[in-house]
Design brief:
With 154 residues, the chain is mainly beta. It folds into 2 domains: 7-68 and 125-149, Roll (Chitinase A, domain 3), CATH 3.10.50.40; 73-120, Thrombin, subunit H (Beta Barrel), CATH 2.40.10. The protein is 8% helix and 41% strand. It contains 2 helices and 9 strands, in the order E-E-E-H-E-E-E-E-E-E-H. The longest helix is centred in the first third of the chain and has 7 residues, at 43-49. It starts with 6 loop residues before the first strand and ends in a 5-residue tail after the last helix. Its EC number is 5.2.1.8.
Amino acid sequence: MQVAENTVVSFDYTLRDEEGTVLDSSEGREPLAYLHGHGNIVPGLEKAMAGHSAGDEFQVTVDPEEGYGPYREELVQNVPRDAFQGVDNLEPGMSFQAQSSAGPMIVTVKEIEGDEVTVDGNHALAGQPLDFSVAVAEVREATPEEQENGEIAG
């Protein structure tokens, strides 16, 4: 069976940056499973999966526009330190959920200077091409419940 709309796909992967550094991998874990055609993985990888079958191995580079999006400077903001009340040891690299005009979003502390904190609402991989090595483990038809819910059961 080939990967197509409303199939459940399980695959192993390694994600590298442009320099070849491994950013994420399913090695040592169960394959990642998703419902194809429902936006459950980055769009560029989902497009590249289409037509493949169990046992296929391939590599694909996903451009930022079809990955985690371009890096958006407007998502970097300076906020007062007192916006982090209850956080005693605020440090760069810490992530928090924040409310924005578009709803909740995750922001990461980039820098702290005195009473001013620079936060970044971009995904950590925004603006970067994503190099995937993929091995398709299994492809099956989605159940009616999975199709209705837009995600795999369990």
